[in-house]
Backbone:
């Protein structure tokens, strides 16, 4: 058997337990192949356990392992780095737990913080960098590690309590949909719950909109105090280290 | 590129693992070099890369990979090699090593070191992949002998002959993992001393020493979660009699003990080399 055919058979054994490879192996093929079959699954399971520590604490070992096994069977790894394997586990959890939205949200938070940890470096602006900016033409550049998503539960409070070793609060649906933003400032991944308007403003900034057009959008959403809201957003972004530069579009 | 030579570096080192980062950042750990897992640092940024840069200012660094998949019939992934080359340029390592194995095929990645058949077909594939890697990385590779848990019916070469042929045809070098020789010898019923004698000793630039586990089903597993056991030390003594100078290190990947324990093991490795030199 040529190498390509043999490797395809071995892959099929790992993925689906196919027995075709067994005839190519000397001695007790079942015992020997089991080492590789088990190691493949164990390595992926360990990866998911390490990456989704807070999800595991929330759903318990048994529930977590059931979900992880399903993910492993449905989603074989395709990337050369194991660090990418957790991508999409939040979707698997959303399928398994359709009535418990905090679980997928916790998974997204675990995953996004994990990604931010090894994401690209960026130097954040300080407050004094804002002097002299022409705000009519200003375009904001944002740290490359920023990730956001809408959330409907108090997943952030649950995550924080677990991380601090405290008893987490019960799951609670938020009165209105909010959003989470995850980013890294320096070497520290962070997250913050934000309202939908800030989420929209950051999406606009990430797409290259001018600060003036962001302000216009805020004004359209808030009939009063729009300038204070926009200023508050900007102050928060600078304080959190979210901005890397402010350039003029002119 | 395949004809480039690699200078000998003689010394004693440890794998750089996160629990020991603070120790290595002091620059006071008594080792001659450290080895890092390449893939852990083939990232875009963040603290690990910063730690590596600081450690590199204090120690020579060897890059050791687990995902090159040098034995894949569909070739090595070029994007992987380009990312590795970027790390090589950043670190300027002593050398770059990976395993004689395959890890993936046609987009699938097992994240395991899967065994190769030792056939002419596999030899051609491995040599072509080694040449490509060496061309992209602009330096010779070190290939590590794997721990294996099976042998293929089609094998026509012994593993040590296969490795010798790869060295001869590509100009690559070897990383001899003494524990892997012991584990594979026990699992596949060959004489580890014959294995050692069959390798081209002048191509060996690095030695790994590690521990293993018994899976209770008749096989030893290369778990790297135990101290180096007596049979591996015995085989290392034999290896010391055969080898010219090499960089020697304790490899521990799981159940990482306090640094002092690993340094004590490294002292044993040093003492055995000193004993051999004294006897010579």
Residues:
């Amino acid at each position: 058997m040529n190498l390509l055919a043999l490797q395809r058979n071995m892959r099929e054994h790992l993925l689906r337990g196919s027995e075709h490879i067994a005839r190519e192996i000397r001695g007790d093929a079942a015992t020997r192949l089991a080492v590789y079959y088990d190691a493949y699954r164990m390595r992926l399971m360990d990866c998911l356990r390490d990456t989704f520590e807070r999800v595991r604490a929330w759903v318990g070992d048994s529930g977590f392992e059931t979900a992880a096994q399903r993910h492993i069977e449905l989603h074989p790894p395709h990337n050369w780095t194991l660090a990418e394997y957790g991508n999409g586990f939040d979707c698997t959890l959303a399928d398994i737990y359709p009535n418990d939205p905090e679980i997928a949200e916790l998974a997204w938070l675990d995953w996004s913080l994990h990604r931010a940890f090894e994401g690209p470096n960026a130097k954040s602006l300080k407050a004094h960098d804002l002097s002299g900016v022409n705000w009519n033409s200003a375009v904001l550049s944002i740290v490359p590690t920023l990730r956001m998503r809408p959330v409907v539960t108090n997943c952030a409070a649950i995550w924080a309590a677990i991380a601090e070793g405290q008893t987490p609060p019960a799951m609670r649906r938020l009165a209105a949909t909010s959003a989470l933003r995850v980013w890294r400032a320096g070497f520290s991944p962070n997250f913050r719950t934000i309202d939908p308007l800030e989420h929209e403003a950051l999406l606009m900034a990430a797409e290259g909109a001018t600060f003036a057009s962001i302000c216009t959008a805020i004004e359209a959403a808030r009939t009063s105090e729009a300038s204070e809201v926009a200023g508050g957003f900007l102050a928060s972004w600078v304080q959190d280290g979210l901005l890397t530069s402010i350039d003029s579009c002119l | 590129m395949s004809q480039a030579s690699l200078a000998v570096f003689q010394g004693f080192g440890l794998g750089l693992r996160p629990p020991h980062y603070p120790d290595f950042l002091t620059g006071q750990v008594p080792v001659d070099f450290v080895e890092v897992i390449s893939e852990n640092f083939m990232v875009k940024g963040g603290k690990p890369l910063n730690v590596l840069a600081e450690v590199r200012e204090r120690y020579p660094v060897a890059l050791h990979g687990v995902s090159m998949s040098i034995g894949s019939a569909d070739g090595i992934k070029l994007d992987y090699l380009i990312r590795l080359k970027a790390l090589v340029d950043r670190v300027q390592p002593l050398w770059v090593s990976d395993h004689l194995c395959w890890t993936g095929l046609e987009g699938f990645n097992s994240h395991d070191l899967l065994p190769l058949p030792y056939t002419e077909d596999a030899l051609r594939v491995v040599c072509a992949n080694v040449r490509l890697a060496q061309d992209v990385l602009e330096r010779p590779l070190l290939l590590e002998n794997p721990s294996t848990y099976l042998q293929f019916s089609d094998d026509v070469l012994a593993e040590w002959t296969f490795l010798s042929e790869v060295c001869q045809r590509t100009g690559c070098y070897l990383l001899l993992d003494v524990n892997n020789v012991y584990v594979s010898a026990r699992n596949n019923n060959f004489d580890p001393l014959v294995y050692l004698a069959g390798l081209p000793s002048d191509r060996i630039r690095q030695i790994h020493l590690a521990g293993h586990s018994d899976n209770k089903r008749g096989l030893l597993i290369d778990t790297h979660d135990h101290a180096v056991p007596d049979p591996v030390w015995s085989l290392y003594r034999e290896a010391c009699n055969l080898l010219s100078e090499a960089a020697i290190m304790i490899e521990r990947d799981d159940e990482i003990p306090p640094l002092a324990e690993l340094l004590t093991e490294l002292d044993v490795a040093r003492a055995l080399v000193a004993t051999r030199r004294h006897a010579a």
Q: What stands out?
A: Residues 29-51 of chain A form the longest helix (23 residues). The beta strands of chain A are 138-142, 147-153, 173-185, 188-194, 243-248.
